[in-house]
């Protein structure tokens, strides 16, 4: 089952006419108003973006019998603090939901009843929400929704409509959405002057120019162009002749031709476009559409016969009629007696026939005569277009050509003595022209007139307009791309287009134009990359040899595929130079030969020694092997590569490559090297059987890196390092980018940390010491290449210097945007030969803590983080109510109250006698015991004083130790490498205190980036001592106090929710825990539940876990919803939508064996909850007979 992603959704979008009213409600209270358009979610989370196209097709079939919806909102509703509009057509929406759910059985759906709603606001609590609803007049909004919208977005960006599925249209229902993301617009309707300005701007006749081209845009009424026959009657139809190759070689694709004939017949049924068909093989003849549909492919190919048939059709048409010819072939002429004479005669006929003629061509498969088709498309009175259709693209090419000629009209534009033949597009009785010509063709004044000519002459004055974003895209469309340099230039031009700079009413159209232009450029990228790889594979080089092992990956993001294509073309040019450099290297000197003999390395595959491969080959070199995991992110971010193990043994690269080729032939790429699996956010573990072959230690390997060995050996490696790294990271020798050279230092950092780990014996002993020393030399030798790349601005987009010096200089260089991996810094420092200084230790460990605390608190209410910071600033008394109640203490729930909640749980479970149950009912009613309010809601703000470290050193040291214990597991990779400093050893107490305050204060990469931008993240090394520490503390204190003064009530509510969750965690009786859950978080939602989950996540370290009574039982209750057989939480349904990240923390908290037992108890089918009586609903479904479309199966979290 696919649990879906929150980056996509299947939703209903109300009609635009209803938006002003809806957006007025949302703008003040919905924090997502700039992310989501008004919507009713049908399925959310939804399938990943790459699966949406197939999902849309299945949804189209599933909803074929449904009709567009008429939705009316006449009442408000709320889920706790969330307000919404409730639609009054719930039956139709339930039917739609069931159809969609049934179409996508692999998608996990939330374990709750389907409750269609349109969110309009989120409030701090339920009371505020209800007050808002009560203050609003009853809504009355009516809208029609005719389509399902498949929404998608990038992280931190608004949604856009990727696809639409029109209800009731079946297989024809899927249509493209928008390329531009949703943007919140003013809720007031535009005034008439704005609409008028938009209309005038859209139909303006104007010209624009830069140094290269002039763009002419104008519109003319079609009837003013004199579109009439020679008899004087209006020309009622365009004439298009489709000339189709019917030879025997078309048998496999002839069905595509017939499909598109059906399409053209349907589209031209209104009579504005008349189509003629010519079929040709050995002979040619004009036929009807029905005859095309009844015909079959056979015979040879005779272009001469086709020309004669075309001439016969054209001659039968009235003089002056505009004629478009679409000539299609899949091969060469095989039957004409004199093709040159036939072609010349046809060209002369076209010139003298007295009719405007445009010839378009379609070449099908690689065997067609491209040169011949290029020749005939220039024979018309203006240049035609050409389409190349691959084996499966003939139908699409024909349809595109028909759509083009259906709306185009050939005319003459004339300015002064200069004239141009071009096509205009006829839409709604207007003919619109948008053409670009070289600037040096026409001399233009500020005000000019263009004459538009067909059968009549129309003079149109043009205004001058400045160049805009649309001009840039049109310039891209008009640029001829013949070389890689042309493509790079045009790609830069298109990348410079900024939709936000266009006028509002242009942005949608501009976004679509840019998307289409990029699609065209992507085809060029693929073409040049293919040619580059073909050229490389024909040369005898390392790159060519590795190309035979290249992994043909399909990436989830088109941008990644485009990046790989661009790299292939840019890197291919270095291949020949590489060969020349290798051949020019000097012979192996005696000192290096002696060094190799002393090292005694031998390849276990070929039996060759290192000195033999250096003497017998000018390209080969020695490598060591690794087992690595390559998530798809590695294409963009090489540091995402994960080194799982460094294996024993060294090999000649040629022998390693030969072994790899055999493994790939036998097991395929995925089984041999693992391909690209998962992502950084969603890692996927490789099977232990994935690998190329086993080394001397019996372990499977799937990657290799070169050794240094000696200067001569390194010289070979240095020349070939780009394809080596390209293949190591991307499985493509032409996939190199400079970031990979930086990431190589991260591999060294990982090896150093593995070696230092006391409990890990995988990289120990004399061999490991030799390997790491040798690889350090290699990285040191590559540092000049890395520094050159850093100085070029290629890494992180800014000019950089030495990574270690920058890191020590300022927190601005420590962000994840500037240094994606701390392993890189570890490797860089070792390669530089720099001994770790106290300044390095402080900066490194503080950033290490900040990153790991960011992971710990991700998805956890920020109040838990603030509470820890307040304890570090103010000591035990962080929030005190008017009666002096301590708001900090990890509330030990009182025995008296726990007995009350325990009794309530047993009452709800039905374990009490009738007499005791009646006593509980009389005492507590239906609401149960009163939940403690740790901090009185009637208290008022009182200022606090910051502690100095000396005033409570023991207390503060305890807090520091407790917090560091929670991230000890995350710090472990580098703890032993720096003498335990990652765990706080080697620092003074006050140093640890202020470092932890800095790390906690800047938890979250966005928070850190903002602090760096504002200059509020001070360098801790420069703030040592009493005065510096006081400055850091004072800044944080002022921020906290400002928030408390202005939002005291909200601060109290947030802290009470946290303290309530702490009380629940502290219970020593599982029934008391259950009773508190029943009253504070009966469903899996709300602040208390979120805090409870966050507190349990923080128990992933052993010390914290030991402080929580009944930890395993409490985790089991939250995940399964049950205690024993009693349905305690969420009607006893399992928490199947618990995030994998949270599940992993909980697994670490209770231990693997206990978690597996809990996970096993969660297995089963969960979904729609029916009434307890088990009486079937109107659809015949109940708990004993659930609707299969509304339930799902849980079979584990698959944590790996």
UniProtKB/TrEMBL annotation:
Residues 237-406 form the VWFA domain. It holds the Pfam family 2_5_RNA_ligase2. Coiled coil: none annotated. Signal peptide: none annotated. SMART domains: VWA. PANTHER family: 2'-5' RNA LIGASE FAMILY PROTEIN, RNA LIGASE/CYCLIC NUCLEOTIDE PHOSPHODIESTERASE. This is VWFA domain-containing protein.
